[in-house]
Amino acid sequence: MVEGATIIGPLVIVGGHEDKFGHPEILERIATLAHQHHPDLPLAVVTTASHHGNLSFATYHNAFRQFGLKVFPLRIDSRQQADLPYASQMLAQASGIFFTGGDQLRITSVLGGTPFHHALMESWGRGLVVAGTSAGASMMSGTMIVAGDAERTPAKNTVNMARGMGLWEDAVIDQHFSQRGRVGRLLAAVAQNPQTLGVGIDENTAVIVELNNHQLTVWGEGTVLVVDGQKTTMNNASEAQPGEPLTLTHVMVHILSRGYGLNLEQREPIRVFT
Question: Can you tell me the distance from the alpha carbon of 72 to that of 3, in angstroms, rounded to the nearest whole number?
Answer without folding.
Answer: 29
